Amino acid sequence: MPFPDLSPDVVAEYRSDARAPEDFDAFWSGTLAGARGDLGLTVTPVEDGPVFQVSDVSYRGFGGHEVKGWLIAPPGASSVVVKFIGYNGGRSFAHEHLFWPSTGRAVLVMDTRGQGSGWAPGATPDPVGSDPAHAGFMTRGILRREDYFYRRVFTDAVRAVEAAFTLYPRVAVAGGSQGGGISLAVAGLVPGLSAVMPDVPYLCDFWRGVTVATRDPYLEIARYLAVHRGAEEAVFRTLSYFDGVHFAARATAPALFSVGIMDTICPPSTVYGAYNAYAAPKQMARYTFNDHEGGGPFQEMRQKDWLAGVMPA
């Protein structure tokens, strides 16, 4: 397969020309202020085994809506990784999230509202409707920043981290693809994180993603615009409030990124757009001959070693 984006020898130097709206910070501070209040956090043990305790988690996210999750904790854990899920996946079953507990850390898995019917089941509905939208989630509420789907998701994610901080003194965030994009949003919105681990992150440098990617989900936006001629300005105005490039520029925690140079879903230039804007110490794990699967288990092992240096178990 040919390289689908910029050539490998130049893509690492790519810098996005996306610019944050002047009221980007005010929009997000207002959004989060409106969501704060009683977390309504419940942690209900469902399995107390000899190695890990598994708990069903519930808390109040955007709009006070209930968000579900799993908390899986080894005895004596003093740190937690908050894990965000890839596009249209849900929290699924607890035993699928044992990697971080196996390193001595707890993991808090956030169920993504409205998703969980593509490849892994979810349990959190999204009770908010939208204008006409293309199938999928990328265009739900896309004409207005206040209505956009990811405003709710990113707020849910911040609340998940706030819940994690009530349980453990040290918190890292991680995720792949959409989960990587959510982790970048949290990195730019929440101070005090110990580490950020975005793998092949989605939701970065939207204009380039929509015009370079050859597989969904970015192409949902292109198909929407092919029907809604004349909506381009409004669409990309909305997306400018949700771009991982802008959250990266506000991050304060050390980060370990990964990128697949043959990625046809999240073009590597979009990943480097966020990486090169990232304002805190950072490293990139590069997988030259991999598509969107990136490093897979190789990256997990790299994360384990890297996290040991910045957030001991």
Structure characteristics:
alpha/beta, nine-stranded mixed beta sheet, 10 helices, 9 strands
Q: What can you see in these coordinates?
A:
This protein has 313 residues and is of the alpha/beta class. It has a single domain (11-306), classed as Alpha/Beta hydrolase fold, catalytic domain (Rossmann fold). The chain has helices at 24-35, 99-102, 149-167, 178-189, 206-212, 218-227, 232-239, 244-248, 268-277, 297-310; strands at 42-48, 53-60, 66-73, 79-84, 106-110, 170-176, 195-199, 255-260, 282-287. A nine-stranded mixed sheet has the order 1-2-3-5-4-6-7-8-9, with helices on both faces. α3 packs across α4. GO terms for molecular function: carboxylic ester hydrolase activity. The active site is at 177 (nucleophile), 263 (charge relay system), 292 (charge relay system). Substrate binds at residue 87. This is Acetylxylan esterase.
- Distance between the amino and carboxyl termini: 40 Å
Strand order of the largest sheet: 1-2-3-5-4-6-7-8-9
Oligomeric composition of the shown chains: single chain
Helix and strand sequence: HEEEEHEHEHEHHHHEHEH
Q: Helix coverage percent of residues? A: 25-40%
Integer tally of domains: 1
**How does the overall form come out from the CA principal axes?**
globular
For this structure, what is the CATH homologous superfamily? Alpha/Beta hydrolase fold, catalytic domain
Strand content: 15-25%
Radius of gyration (CA) equals 18 Å
Count of DSSP strands: 9
The major pleated sheet works out as: 9 strands, mixed
**CATH architecture field:** 3-Layer(aba) Sandwich
Structural class: alpha/beta
CATH topology: Rossmann fold
Count of helical segments? 10
GO molecular function: carboxylic ester hydrolase activity
Protein name: Acetylxylan esterase
Active site: 177, 263, 292
InterPro entries: AB_hydrolase_fold, AXE1_dom, CE7
